[in-house]
Structures are given as C-alpha cells and as structure tokens.
Amino acid sequence: MSSVQADKQTEEPLDLIRYQLDETVLVKLRGAREMKGKLQGYDSHCNMVLSDAKEYIYNETGEPIVKDCEMVFIRGDSVILISPIS
Amino acid sequence: MSEDKVKTGPSVFLSEILGQQVKVKLNNGVTYLGNLNSIDGYMNIVMDSTSEHVNGEDFVKTYGDVFIRGNNVLYISQV
Amino acid sequence: MLFFSFFKTLVDQEVVVELKNDIEIKGVLKSVDQYLNLKLDNISCTNETKYPHLTSVKNLFIRGSTVRYVRINPNAVDCTLLQDASRREAMQAAK
C-alpha cells in the first residue's frame, strides 16, 4: 500500500468515507443500482451499513424502481462509487 | 548514468498527478473527469469537481467529492 | 473484522439476505464467520413465485461472496457504537 503514498500526512481515499459517517451518501452499485442513506458504518472493503436507505434500481424503461429500507448492510464488492449528498 | 535518476514507475506517476485534472475510466465503460485528491495502493481514488460521462463524451452528472473503489478502475490519465 | 463482530451481535435476529442473483431469503441469523458467510434458520423466500426452488429448505448456509445486501431490524443496531467502531478501525488501519 505504502508504495503509492508513504507519506502519512496526506489523505487516504478512505478518509473521505470516514468524514461521511452520520451523513447522507449516494452509493453507486453494480447491477444498475444506487442506494442513498445515512452512513452508519464502513470498513476498508467498502462494506457499509446505511440507515433510512432508498434503493434505486434502474432499467431501460424510464423510471427506476425505488425500495425503502430502514437499515441495510451492503457488501463492499458491489460498490462502484461513494459520494456525499449535500 | 541511471543512478542519479530518481526512481520511476507507476507510483511516481500517481504521486505526480495528485491535485491535477485527471480522467478515470472504469471497467463498466463510464469515465470520470475531475481533480485528483488522493489515491491508495488499491487504486481507490478520491476526486472533486467530478463529471460523469457514459458514452464517450456525453455529459451525464456532476458530483462534489467522489470515492471510487479501486477494483473498478481501468485507467487513470492526466488531462 | 468490524462487520464480523457486527453480525455476531445480530445472531438470533431475523434478517433478509438479498443475493447477487436477486434471490431474497428471510431467516433467523444463526452464525457468521470472518468471510461473512452466514447460516440462517427457519428460512423463507420473500420472492418465492419467482424462485420456487427453496420452498422445502429449512436452514441454509450462504457463502458471503454471493451476498448483495442484508436488511436488518433497525432496533437491533446501536448506530453510535457502529460509527465509533468504524472510526476506531480506520485509525488502526492507518497505523
């Protein structure tokens, strides 16, 4: 790991996720899915727990399917991208 | 001759482009243009002022900060 | 190790596991290991009409890598504890 960035002063990418704890995030997932929810936990694999989450499943025909979930664990290997929602 | 040259390689490139404008292409074909904030050995990437492009140049969506999980990265290029 | 410990606190709770092949299984979490493989008891398929081949199965071992989501009872989760544990794990990883 340190081969790329040995300097500990500089920020690591995972720090961005840490700053989002207790904040609402957008998670883009494999299989044309997105999940919005409040970040309650994560680890280095991008396994995550979101609360008050909304899942959006996109298909060719216009409107996405929306599913609500109060508390959900997402396995990190499905994660493509994580972004804070302002 | 080659001894006074500092080490080269992918890691040098990656640290040189920190803070610069980059294009990141993912395995699924989507590209992201933005300002590179940080990167680690898994190729996890954080960018800001990012725009998402799906079919080549078609502009789709903008993000403030984004974290991209390294396993999805096909390449990173300086723009 | 964080989510291994997290799932251990959820043992005996009812969870819904959604797999990457879209099958959804509801059941009581009986055990978990470091790969987040799961053992469920008293299972039922929430979308049984679509996937009828698990109707006679009572309990199940799920390989962790096939899991997409696990839906959890929100009352079973201490959010502040989980947030703090995440920060602590991040600190440890940085060392």
From TrEMBL, chain A:
It comes from the Eukaryota. This is U6 snRNA-associated Sm-like protein LSm6. It comes from [Candida] jaroonii. The lineage of its organism: Eukaryota, Fungi, Dikarya, Ascomycota, Saccharomycotina.
TrEMBL record, chain B:
This is U6 snRNA-associated Sm-like protein LSm6. It comes from [Candida] jaroonii.
UniProtKB/TrEMBL annotation, chain C:
It comes from the Eukaryota. This is U6 snRNA-associated Sm-like protein LSm2. The gene is LSM2.
